[in-house]
Design brief:
This protein has a single domain, classed as 2-Layer Sandwich (Translation Initiation Factor IF3). Helices cover 22% and strands 43% of the residues. Strands 1-3-5-4-2 form a five-stranded mixed β-sheet, covered by helices on one side. It is elongated, with a radius of gyration of 19 Å. Keywords: Signal.
């Protein structure tokens, strides 16, 4: 195999062996924009709390599934993004593994399509009153 083909193949293999986490956050328009909080103090909740709160934004996490990052890494990323918004807690509203892409392999007349799955997590950042 010529060197010019080997280098890109090795680079692609190295990238595919890494677990990845991508996070984005969005502040809601027309609500208070509190100062950032300490990520260690941000709670992760699976249902709305009983205390009064205001919704201040959304956090979206996209993570690889093969290999998958550790749960602690995903939670830390979720807390960090919510803390940037000034949240006291983040309420998980969506947590699924879903297709995020596909690739085609084989010859044109007998091609196969393989799904690429990813872990998507969406949370609502909240601030207690």
């Amino acid at each position: 195999m010529p060197l010019r083909r080997l280098v890109p193949a090795l680079f692609a293999l190295a990238l595919s062996a890494c677990a990845s986490i991508d996070a984005t956050s969005t502040q809601y328009v027309g609500v208070a924009h509190p100062a950032p909080t300490d990520p260690a103090s941000v709670q992760i909740l699976r249902e709305e709390p009983k205390k009064p709160f205001d919704r201040i934004g959304e956090v979206k996490i996209d993570a690889s599934t093969d290999p998958a990052p550790g749960v602690t890494e995903v939670e830390d990323k979720l807390r960090a993004e919510a803390a940037k918004l000034g949240a006291d807690a983040v309420v998980i509203v969506y947590d699924r593994i879903q297709p995020v892409g596909a690739y085609v392999s084989g010859p044109y007349w007998a091609a196969t399509v393989q799904d690429i799955e990813g872990h998507r997590l969406i949370g609502i950042a909240i601030k207690y009153r």
